[in-house]
Structures are given as structure tokens and as C-alpha cells.
Specification:
Largest sheet: 2 strands, antiparallel
Number of strands: 4
Structural class: mainly alpha
Oligomer: single chain
Number of helices: 4
Order of helices and strands: HHEEEHEH
Strand order of the largest sheet: 1-4
Radius of gyration: 21 Å
Length: 219
């Protein structure tokens, strides 16, 4: 009886661990199998990079990166100071912020704003929209999200650590600022690269204890 019980337990344990294995790779284990692995989204499409990049005949958007995804033409509501409701926050933002998302943020938003289909690549209109995935759909109102396309001005904002001293795991902040501006890639590694992603969703530094926030913010 004990032997039969042990066998049953072994079968159940194997089934459980097999389920974990197919649930997707962990942080930092590469794009294959991650939420950014879109292979199979379009029937017959076996490539996973093609939704964003093409080795030939890309769209030319984003000024490089062999970009292959349709850009968004949307207008966004950017993060703003709360001076209208609380004068104490009148000088809350010290860095100059662009009126609209710029740089690589536009690439992220070409899927994550919900206005362009995820499978809108290579000139195709696409049919699968990010609105089907509410947790990943940022929409057009970015006022409730961390500021993007904003200068990391550690000279004006003494609540920020000097940018040269900020380490984000496998990279330094100065390596991923875009014209001295913070964009999505400052916190996220979209490729789930080994050594660069340590937490979901594609976060460069663990969120435990707000460690990611405290790399930049001196609190």
C-alpha cells in the first residue's frame, strides 16, 4: 500500500512540476516563451521577432532597430504636476518632459496603448488588440503612470541619486537614458534578457522592498 501511495505521489508531483515548466520561462531566461513571444499569434507565423523587427524591409519607424510594427498616431495625456489641486506639488517635476512620448516609449506604446493591433506588422492591419489584455493595456491616459520622456535631472531634483551612480542590475542608468530622458526601458527589459531581467513583468531590478524605485529615488 505504501508503495502504491508513493507511486501515486510521484505521478502527481511530476504532473505538477510539468505544469510549472510549461507555464513560461522565469525572469531573465530570454524572450522565447515569455509574454513577448508572439510566435503563433498569427496562424502560420512561426517567427517571434517579426512582430517588432524585420531583417529586411522594415517600416523604418523609430529611426532604426529594423522596426517592423505599425506606429501609433495617438495623442496622450502625459503625467503632470498636481498643482491645481495641491499647490505643494507645484514644483514636483524638475526634469523637462516632452509633450508626447518620444524615443523607444513610442515603440512600446505601438502595442500597449491599445490603438494599434499587436499583429499590425509588415504593413498588415492586424486583428488582435491589446484591449484584450487589460493588465497590459496602458491606454492613452498616462497621467497615472510613471513619467516617461522626461529628463533625469539630478541637479535640479535632489531627491534623485546622481545618474552616474545609478545601477540597474546588468546596466547603468546612463547607458539607457535617451537624450538624458527616462523611458520605459529604464525599468523594463522587453527581451527578458539573461542578467537584465530579475522580476516580472520584465523588470530590471526586483520590486521587493521597492528596490527598483530606490535605485533612482533617494528616499
Amino acid at each position: 500500500m505504501k508503495k502504491v501511495s508513493a507511486i501515486i505521489f510521484a505521478i502527481i508531483f511530476a504532473a505538477m512540476t510539468a505544469g510549472v515548466a510549461v507555464a513560461g520561462p522565469g525572469p531573465g531566461t530570454g524572450i522565447s516563451g515569455s509574454k513577448h513571444d508572439l510566435s503563433g499569434l498569427v496562424p502560420g507565423e512561426v517567427q517571434l521577432c517579426i512582430y517588432c523587427h524585420a531583417p529586411h524591409n522594415g517600416t523604418g519607424a523609430a529611426g532604426g532597430l529594423l522596426w517592423n510594427h505599425s506606429p501609433s498616431a495617438a495623442t496622450y495625456n502625459m503625467y503632470t504636476e498636481e498643482a491645481a489641486s495641491d499647490p505643494a506639488f507645484a514644483n514636483f517635476i524638475n526634469g523637462a518632459q516632452d509633450a508626447e512620448p518620444t524615443g523607444s516609449a513610442k515603440l512600446c506604446l505601438s502595442c500597449h496603448d491599445g490603438t494599434v493591433a499587436i499583429d499590425a506588422y509588415g504593413g498588415a492591419a492586424g486583428t488582435v488588440n491589446m484591449t484584450a489584455f487589460p493588465n497590459a493595456n496602458l491606454g492613452l491616459d498616462l497621467s497615472d503612470d510613471h513619467p516617461i520622456s522626461i529628463v533625469y535631472d539630478d541637479a535640479a531634483d535632489l531627491g534623485l541619486f546622481p545618474k552616474a551612480a545609478v545601477n540597474l542590475g546588468a546596466v547603468n542608468l546612463t547607458d539607457i537614458l535617451e537624450n538624458d530622458k527616462i523611458n520605459c526601458v529604464a525599468c523594463h527589459d522587453v527581451h527578458n534578457s539573461p542578467g537584465e531581467t530579475v522580476d516580472a513583468p520584465f523588470v530590471r531590478v526586483t520590486m521587493t522592498g521597492s528596490a527598483l524605485c530606490l535605485r533612482c529615488h533617494d528616499k
